[in-house]
Amino acid sequence: MSCPICKNDSAARYRPFCSKRCADIDLGRWMRGSYAIPADEPPADADAQEADIRPRETRH
User: Fold this and answer.
1) Is 3 annotated as a binding residue?
2) How much of the chain is helix, strand and coil, in % rounded to 5?
3) Domain count, the chain
4) pTM of the full structure
5) Is 9 annotated as a binding residue?
6) What is d(CA 2, CA 8) in angstroms, rounded to the nearest whole number?
C-alpha cells in the first residue's frame, strides 16, 4: 500500500501513511475542510442557524 500523501511505501506504525509528517499533513487537511464533500443544495441561511444555537432569554 502506498502513502496517500507522497506515494511512498506505507509504514506499519503510521499506516496508511509512510511517516508522522504525512499523517500530520492529512490531519491538517481534514481540519481545514479540504476533504469536504460538495453538496447539491446551497447551505441553509446562516441567520436561521444562529437563531437555533443562541440560548433563549427567559423572563422571571
Assistant:
1) yes
2) 40, 5, 55
3) 1
4) 0.59
5) no
6) 5
Note whether residue 9 is domain-resident.
yes
> What's the CATH code of the domain at 15?
3.30.50.10
Report if residue 58 sits inside a domain: no
Cα three-residue angle 27-32-37, rounded to 5 degrees: 95
Q: Which three cell numbers stand for residue 36?
A: 469536504
Is-contact 2 19, C-beta < 8 A?
Answer: no
19 labeled binding residue? no
The model's pLDDT over 1-56, given as tens digits with 9 standing for 90+, comes to 899 999 999 999 999 999 999 999 999 999 998 988 877 876 666 555 555 565 66
What are the φ/ψ torsions at residue 14 (nearest 5 degrees)? -115, 15
